[in-house]
Design brief:
about 300 residues; alpha+beta; Uridine Diphospho-n-acetylenolpyruvylglucosamine Reductase, domain 2; Uridine Diphospho-n-acetylenolpyruvylglucosamine Reductase, domain 3; Uridine Diphospho-n-acetylenolpyruvylglucosamine Reductase, domain 1; 3 domains; 7-stranded antiparallel sheet; 5-stranded mixed sheet; 21 strands; globular; binds uridine-diphosphate-2(N-acetylglucosaminyl) butyric acid
């Protein structure tokens, strides 16, 4: 771990009363009292430090593809990372070190990889969202997870410093990264360690992963899988076998394609999604005795609603 200290910056990137629905793939979420969109490392550092000096927590928003934000006004400050975007690569023999700012789309890193024949991220084909979100959630698919490809992460810390973490000192679990648990820090830059390979092989491997996604409702407004897979089983299978496909609540509907996806098919609200999720949870509990936990991150949702079985 290497540490450096932070400078002061103006508040030119702060906005008030911002509708969050525009920043989530579900298209739901109330209004943020305050939203920071830092554009570089110094602005990010100052943002994190200032918010925490005022004794507030914060919520980090990347591509908004894995979050459920409540419908009302939200006091918690938001840090939107998408203004910090860009990539650069260093080549050393067959080793490629791809630096991505946290707000860069993961799909951009994949496009660059496939164009150059860089191998290491093929499993992530079709995963939406930003690189920062992907490491914070350790996004993945059956053939791999993002943490496996991370060489290092640079973060902005609560005290205003910037810290560089080696991928090896991070504990990666199922949809979990030890850096972004309860700690108040934000990813600034992620370096992936990739290998030079044949362009056709990389393209073919990505296509194989994409072909598997044909069972997922990729063109609907969703937030990916809603529930985590319980150990040794699939939430989608349990939900399907419990008769959840096609169930609705307001404008929210369980996908007919894959039962672990909830679609916003008609101006749904966060309350609709929560109500539908709790009905699904109850069905699976009644039929299989299995408890389903959210894979999605929530904000402004009371703890009892997160676990409700309605
Ligand atoms: N299944 C059903 N009915 C359904 C959905 C699935 O019977 O409605 C069955 C499938 O036939 C299969 C099994 O359940 O036998 C597993 O399904 P699938 O291959 O779709 O994988 P999954 O476990 O549901 C996981 C990840 C996905 C990732 C896929 C592909 C989780 C919660 N989900 O889904 O990740 O895309 O593997 O690798 O870990 C996400 O994280 O948002 C996500 C979509």
């Amino acid at each position: 771990m290497k540490r450096s200290s932070s400078p002061e910056m103006p508040d030119s990137f702060v906005r008030n009363n911002i509708s969050l629905a525009q920043y989530t793939t579900w298209g739901v979420g109330g209004a943020a009292g305050i939203l920071f969109s830092p554009r570089n490392r110094d602005e990010l550092s100052v943002t994190v430090k200032r918010i925490l000096e005022e004794d507030k927590g914060f919520f980090v928003l990347g591509g908004g593809s894995n979050v459920l934000i409540s419908d009302g006004d939200i006091e918690t400050p938001f840090i939107l990372t998408t203004e910090m975007s860009g990539m650069s690569a260093r080549v050393s023999g067959n080793d490629i070190f791809l630096d991505c700012l946290a707000g860069t789309r993961l799909s951009s890193a994949l496009s660059l990889s496939v164009r150059n024949g860089w191998s290491g991220l093929e499993f992530a084909a079709g995963i939406p969202g930003t690189v920062g979100g992907a490491v914070a959630c350790n996004s993945g698919a059956s053939s791999g997870y993002v943490g496996q490809a991370v060489q290092k992460i640079v973060t902005a810390e609560a005290d205003g410093s910037v810290v560089e973490w080696s991928g090896r000192e991070i504990d990666w679990g199922y949809r979990r990264c030890s850096l972004f648990g309860d700690e108040m820090r934000v990813a600034y830059k992620i370096t992936f360690a990739l290998r030079l390979s044949e362009k056709n092989d990389v393209a073919r491997a990505m296509k194989t992963v994409m072909d598997k996604r044909t069972s997922q409702p990729v063109s609907s407004r969703t937030a990916g899988c809603v529930f985590k897979n319980p150990p040794g089983d699939s939430a989608g299978r349990l939900l399907d076998a419990s008769g959840c496909k096609g169930m609705t609540a307001g404008g929210a509907r369980v996908s007919e394609a894959h039962a672990n996806f909830i679609e916003n098919y008609g101006n749904c609200t966060a309350a609709d999604i929560l109500s539908l999720a709790s009905s699904c949870r109850r069905r699976v509990r009644e039929k299989f005795g299995a408890a389903l936990d959210f894979e999605i991150r929530t904000l402004g949702i009371p703890e009892e609603a997160i676990h409700a079985q309605g």
